[in-house]
Every structure is written in C-alpha cells, then in structure tokens.
Amino acid sequence: MLNNKVHYRTCNLCEAMCGLEITYKEKEIISIVGDKKDPLSKGYICPKSLALKDLYEDPDRLKTPIKRTENGWEEISWTEAFDEIEIQIKKIQEKHGNNAIATYQGNPNVHNLGSILYGGPFLKSLKTKQKYSATSVDQLPHHIASLKMFGHQMLIPIPDIERTDYLLILGANPGASNGSLLTAPGFSQKIKNIQKRGGKVINIDPRFTETSRISSQHFYINPGKDALFLLSLLHVIFEHGIKKRTHLSDHLKGLEEIKEIVKEYSPQKIAHLIGINNLEIQKIGIDFMNSKTAVCYGRMGVSTQEYGGICQWLINVLNIVTNNMDKVGGAMFTKPAIDLVFMTGMQGKVGNFDRYRSRVLDLPEYSGELPVATLADEMITEGEGQIKMFICTAGNPVLSTPNGKKLEKALEKLEFMVSIDIYLNETSKYANIILPSTNGLETFHYDLVFHQLAIRNTAKLSEILFDKNENQRHDWQILNELTERITGKKNTLTPEMMLDHMFKFSPYKEANLSVKKLKDNPHGIDLGALQPLLTKRIFTLDKKINISPKIFIDDLKRLDKELIKVDTEEKYIYPFALIGRRHLRNNNSWMHNSKLLMKGKNRCTVLMSSKDAINLSISDNQKIKITSNVGSIELPVEISDEMKEGVLSIPHGFGHNRLGTKIKLAEKNSGESINDLTDDLKIDQLTGNANFSGTRVQVSK
Ligand SMILES: Nc1nc2c(c(=O)[nH]1)N[C@H]1C(S)=C(S)[C@@H](COP(=O)(O)OP(=O)(O)OC[C@H]3O[C@@H](n4cnc5c(=O)[nH]c(N)nc54)[C@H](O)[C@@H]3O)O[C@H]1N2
Ligand SMILES: Nc1nc2c(c(=O)[nH]1)N[C@H]1C(S)=C(S)[C@@H](COP(=O)(O)OP(=O)(O)OC[C@H]3O[C@@H](n4cnc5c(=O)[nH]c(N)nc54)[C@H](O)[C@@H]3O)O[C@H]1N2
Ligand code: SF4
Ligand SMILES: [Mo]
Q1: Can you tell me whether residue 2 is helix, strand or coil?
Q2: Residues 328-340 pLDDT 10s
Q3: What does the CA dihedral 118, 123, 126, 128 come to, rounded to 10 degrees?
Q4: How far is the CA of 395 from the centre of ligand 1 (A)?
Q5: Which residues of the chain form CATH 2.40.40.20?
Q6: For a tag on the chain, would you pick the N or C end, based on fewer CB atoms within 10 A?
Q7: Rounded to the nearest whole angstrom, what is the distance from the C-alpha of residue 122 to the centroid of ligand 2?
Q8: How far is Cα 120 from Cα 539, in angstroms, rounded to an integer?
C-alpha cells in the first residue's frame, strides 16, 4: 500500500503567495492546508487554494491542441498546430507588416514563472508594436507614477502594514481580494492587528465592503472623485505645515510646486463633489500627518478611474510629504532575492512611456504596450497597421476589458487567432487554434513578481507536484517553440536553469541562494523585514525624486473641469454610477468552473441601496435591466445598505452565457458581464488605463 506524501508550494492564484501543505497519494490530492512554516504566510490560506484540486481534476480543462473547423473543434497534434501557426504568422506579417499581429497577455502570466521568462522573447520575436496586456485594465497608473517620480516602473511603494499606526485605504478591498501590489497573506488579520496595537484603519469606498467592516472607520466617497479627495487632504496637510527635513529632503524636487498647487483645493470648496464632509476630510488629513507612522494605500478602485494617474501620483506625494515614504511603518521598498528592480535599474532599463502612440485613438505607449481599451478599434479600423491576427496568452479580454461585445465583433473579423489557454471560453472560442498549457500543480514556479511586492523579503520555490501527461506542454514550452520557429534559433535553457543563473546576482550573497538550496528548504527562506533603501535606488536621470512631474501637473487641467462641471444631460439619462466588486471565491473570469468555489447563492447580482430600491419600487431579487451608453444586461437586484445611494455594484468576470464555450459549471452560473456596460472610450486619457469606476447607467424593470 502506498503512503500519503506531503508537498509544499506557493499558491499561484492571487498575489498573496500563501504557502500550501498538500497531502497526496499518487495523483490524488487528499488535503490542502496552510503551511505554518512558510516564513511569509505562516499558515494562512483562503478557500480559493482548495480549488487547485478542482482545477487539476477539471474534465473541461483542455489537454490537446484544438482547431476550429467547419465541423466544430477538432483535436490536432502539437506539430500540426505549430506548423499552421508558423505559416500564418509569416504569411500575415509578409502581407500586412509586422504590426498586423497583436498580442494580449492576461493576468495569470505574472503568476507563472515560465510565462514571465519566455513571454518576453516571444513578444520580441514578433517585432510588433501591437502589444497589449491586463496592465491597462488594472495597475498601469502605479507604474507611470513610479516611473515619473522614482525613475523605475517597478519601484512600487509597499505599505508596511505590519508596523504602521495609521492605514488609509482607498479603492481596495483586501477583505475579498487578499491584497494587490501588496503581497501580505492574511491581510485582514493584519488590518485588525493595527487596531489591536492602538492604531487606526480608515477606508474610503463607495461601498461598505468586507474591508470596511474590519476598519476603524469607513467613509462613502462619490465614485471617481479620489483625485479631488487626495488634493484636499494635501491642502490640509500643507496648510498645517509639513516637517522641514527628512532623510529624503536632499533627494526631493518639486515640493514648492505641489505646495502652491494644492492651495486651490480646499476641502471647504470641493467636499460636496467628493461626498465626504469638509470636517471629516480635515480630520483625516490632520490625523494622517500627526500619526507617528501612517501610510496611504490606493489600489484597483482608484487606478481604474478617469484620473487614475493623478490618484497614484498623489498617494505617493501624500506618503512623501508626511515623512512616511521609505520609512518603517510607512510605504517601503523591497529587496527580494532576485531583485529585478535593482538589476534592470542599474542597466538603465527602467521602462518607458509615450514613445509612440496608438494608431486609431492616439493613446500613449507604456513599456512597449498600448492600452487594451483600444484593441477592438485597432482591429476594426481599416488602413495601414490594422490588426489581422491576434495571439492571446492566458487572457480573457472579452470579459475583462471595457465594451467586451465590441471586442467580440472585432475578433470575428480577424484572419487568424491563437489562444494559449487552459479552457475553451468566451475569448478562446474565437481562436482558430487553442494551445492548452499545464496549470498550477503541474508547474515549476518561483514568484519573480510578487516577491518584489511583498511586505517581507522571503524566497520560495515550488517544484512540480504532478507530472504532466506526455501530450501536455508547459506555457514556457509553447512560447519557446513559437519563438524558435519565428527566429529560427534554438534555445535549450529551461526555467530552472534561468532561475539558477538569476540567483547569482542576488543581493543576499551570504545566503548562497540557488535552485538547489530552495529545493532543500521547501517552506521557503526568510530574508528579513523591509529596510529603508530608496536613496540608493533613485533611477531618475537627475537622481532626484520628482514630486511634481510635469505630466501630472498638466493633467490637473483636465481634472479642474470637474470643479466647474454642471450636471450634464448624461447624468439625467443615466442617473446611477456603477462600480465593480470582488468576492473571496471568485478569481477574475476563470475559476467559475470549480465546484468548491461555486457553492452557495448566486453572486452575480446588482447591489442597490434600499433607498434607491424604494424610490424605484424594486424588490429584492427582482430582475432589472441595466443600460449604459454601450449596452444593457439583466440581473437580479440584491438590496444592500452596503451601497451608497445612487451607486450600483456588479462583480466582473461573469457572463459565461455566450454560446460555444466548454466550461459546464460556469455556464450554469453564467451571470452577466459588467464589461458589456463599461465604455472603451472613457479611459484615463493620461495613462490610457481603463476606467471602470462610476460608469453611468440607468435601470428599468
Ligand atoms: N469591470 C471590471 N473589469 C475588470 C476588472 C474589474 O475589477 N472590473 N479587473 C481587471 C483586472 S485587475 C484584471 S487583472 C483583468 C484580468 O483580465 P484577464 O487576464 O484578461 O482575465 P482572467 O479572467 O484573469 O483570464 C485569465 C485567462 O487565462 C487562462 N489561464 C488560467 N491559468 C492559465 C495558465 O496557467 N496558463 C494559460 N496559458 N492560461 C491560463 C484562463 O482560462 C483565462 O482564460 O480583468 C480586469 N477587468
Ligand atoms: N477573490 C479574488 N481575489 C482577487 C481577484 C479576484 O478576482 N477575486 N483578483 C485579483 C486581481 S487581478 C487584482 S488586480 C486584485 C485587486 O484587488 P483590490 O484592489 O483590492 O480590488 P477590489 O477588490 O476590486 O477592490 C476595489 C475597491 O474599490 C472600490 N471602488 C470602486 N470605485 C471606487 C472609487 O471611485 N473610489 C474609491 N475610493 N473606491 C472605489 C470598490 O468598491 C472596491 O471595494 O485582486 C486580486 N485578488
Ligand atoms: S489568498 Fe491568494 S494566494 Fe493565498 S490561498 Fe488564497 S488564493 Fe491562494
Ligand atoms: Mo488585476
């Protein structure tokens, strides 16, 4: 009789990097629990990790390449698939130019070592400017703020939530999302701990969320008005006088400029637009500046706004001018075992912005990518540079990008499309060929990205738990074969070899890190708490931290129109503002096929305040039609006093009712896609990021 065995790894489903202890026998998982010896997560896990079993066993998961034919989908061999894709790439680029091929990289790419290491060379081999990713429906403003202020797109300040006395959270709901650009497993407990230490947690959100519930105080804000809120906080802080000198003083520039600017934004003048009372704003500002340590954390909900760029810039400014940047208990910077920021920063490869613009809408490039909101227009609009072929890797843009229905129409018209994906879903169904990859437990993994964003420096490797079957391929093998076929050059390096090489540049010389050492330490290795280090890694040309970058200052003119805006006709036609929401047991669009996660009541509902429901005579669970300027969907109402009056909430990632997919359980719990309502043309004009917060809608019965 075979004995049970135990395997340790990091959960790859969200950014929290929880350590798992998986008991298994042959190819069967017996249990998944938190690994108490993991130096970062110390035993914490959320229910999603248990779904790794469902994912592994899911009969709907693709294992063989499939090709769309007149008679439906047919299984084909890998050689046949690669041969045909190679022919199409060459044919289309010869006929229409390199930019006729577009690529989109979805979120799971950053949770997959192989995709990170082999995705870059693959994109480069295509020599196309039509590159897109989930970055521009998510955290793009963070990167631009870091690039313009610190000189490096990945120099993202990490709130030191384990040591702070005051945490101001805007537009993030770690109580459901487990945190983002802030890897902190057990985030909710850490919020409670701040209060146990005598500290405060203030949450600003148009909805009273899972995070609001465990915060010291919650304030409802009008969607999309965080830039004004932050300006008014800075007004209060400068009015009371900031500390004269800090360890960053000699490294700052632009302080006088911002001080002048915020004079215009007193809370007395703009509180009514923000929706938070003048005195409350003053109190938050004063408490923030007087707290021994304090940090402002603003995520998804403030990034995906009309002024997302301004928001992320001002959050950094707030942390800097209150002497909380690069300080214990404030916003800090990591020094991970493989320190991509330092490695690339020293080589001057720090990212770029606006070197060229998109063809149709004239939107700025960022780090070689264009904003995905304009992908459909680039496909539909005829002329030189029109996209004819699309390669989608681990992405579901039909559900995840604004105006998904428009993208569907555009995908239908392509000459050829390839998806590298584990499912036949809402996006991959438009592919001519789907190349399926291994997933999760079948992969060798090291978190290159999330160690860079964690509240503590640790290093952990995950070995393959279950070998793939002979006909399966890893993402890196698929990407590598495509690259080899395009370039004609062989690459025999494996992810393991590449990783081992990167450890040679580790700043932790004394730790002697290597793949072997991490294999010998399966719970991971602790490298210590974050330390101040920013002055050694400012990568701007003049080596100054720029508090007032010109692009943001100029963008304030756009924001200032908000101050004098009278209610437009749009507000009467579409009286409600729509926002999204996450749930602990969802993961963007792709885990609704897990039995375990889909238990319980329907989660794809419209949340509406009871006052609004009474005004419209709508009862709980009644189906209503929600319409925006781009489309309409029908969903049941959930009356909830979590909602601010005039604001509705629908989760993203649903809409599995489109025909021709193969995700049986998800189809049964289909819901509707919020991105059939969001507008691809209403974006943050500065950064090109999608704007999901506050889509104007009307409702009818
Ligand atoms: N309205 C609204 N829209 C949103 C958001 C929102 O809050 N509101 N959130 C936005 C955010 S933050 C993000 S990150 C995006 C996400 O947007 P996307 O990345 O486009 O969407 P996902 O739902 O993550 O889809 C991931 C795809 O990868 C496949 N997949 C999963 N694992 C693997 C793997 O290991 N290998 C391969 N090859 N494929 C795999 C899945 O089957 C799925 O098709 O959505 C954005 N869209
Ligand atoms: N369970 C689960 N976890 C996830 C994911 C998932 O889909 N499910 N997705 C992962 C991904 S890809 C990401 S990027 C992260 C995102 O993680 P978070 O950034 O925490 O994202 P959300 O949970 O969507 O929280 C955004 C919050 O912003 C609020 N909000 C909306 N509009 C505004 C506004 O105008 N102003 C303010 N102040 N608040 C606003 C919303 O009500 C919501 O509470 O989560 C990750 N973790
Ligand atoms: S919080 Fe994220 S990383 Fe941790 S177990 Fe849940 S899904 Fe996995
Ligand atoms: Mo995301």
Answers
A1: coil
A2: 999 999 999 999 9
A3: -170
A4: 5
A5: 566-700
A6: N
A7: 31
A8: 23
Class of the CATH domain delimited by 66-128+342-447+456-529: alpha beta
Strand 525-529 to 456-459 pairing: antiparallel
Nearest protein CA to atom 31 of ligand 2, as residue = 301
Average pLDDT value for residue range 417-427:
98
Q: How far is the CA of 107 from the centre of ligand 1 (A)?
A: 5
Ligand 4 centre to CA of 571 (Å) is 29
> Tokens standing for 214?
């465990």
Residue of 10, 48, 583 best suited for mutating to test ligand 3, as the one with most atoms within 8 Å of CB: 48
What average pLDDT does the structure give for the chain?
Answer: 97
For residue 300, give the ligand nearest its CA: 2
- Residue 304: pLDDT over 90: yes
Query: How far from chain centre, in Å, is Cα 640?
Result: 27
Cα radius of gyration (the chain): 25
In the structure encoding, which two tokens stand for residue 550, read together? Answer: 């010109």
Asked if 104 and 393 count as a contact pair (C-beta separation under 8 A), the reply is: yes
pLDDT of 1 > 70? The answer is no
Whether 379 contacts 413, CB under 8 Å: yes
Segment 407-433 mean pLDDT: 98
CB 125 within 8 A of CB 286: no
Q: Which among 18, 202, 174 has a CA at the least distance from the CA of 584?
A: 174
CATH fold of 140-337+535-551 reads Dimethylsulfoxide Reductase; domain 2 (3.40.228)
What tokens does 510 get? 């004394």
Q: Are 603 and 583 in contact (CB under 8 A)?
A: yes
pLDDT at 244: 79
pLDDT for the residue numbered 342: 87
Q: Looking at the CA of 438, which ligand is closest?
A: 1
For residue 57, the number of C-alpha atoms closer than 13 Å in the C-beta half-sphere is 11
3.40.50.300, 3.10.20.740, 3.40.50.2000, 2.40.40.20: which CATH number matches 566-700?
2.40.40.20
- 647: phi then psi, degrees, rounded to nearest 5: -120, 135
Distance 109 CA to ligand 1 centre (A): 9
**What are the pLDDT digits (tens) for 214-251?**
999 999 999 999 999 999 999 999 999 888 789 999 99
Predicted confidence (pLDDT) per residue in 477-497, tens digit? 999 999 999 999 999 999 999
Residues of the chain with CATH 3.40.50.740: 66-128+342-447+456-529
pLDDT tens, 139-184? 999 999 999 999 999 999 999 999 999 999 999 999 999 999 999 9
User: Candidates 45, 182, 460: which one to mutate for ligand 3, based on the most atoms within 8 Å of Cβ?
Assistant: 45
Q: What is the pLDDT of residue 547?
A: 98
Please, where in the chain does CATH 3.40.228.10 lie? 140-337+535-551
Q: Which residues line ligand 3 (CB under 6 A)?
A: 11, 13-14, 16-18, 45-46, 48-49, 178, 185
Q: Which two tokens stand for residue 59?
A: 């009969």
Q: Which of 11, 110, 582 to mutate to test the pocket of ligand 3 (most atoms within 8 A of CB)?
A: 11
CA of 138 to the centre of ligand 2 (A): 9
| Mean local confidence (pLDDT), 455-460 | 98
- Give me 379's structure tokens: 């496909």
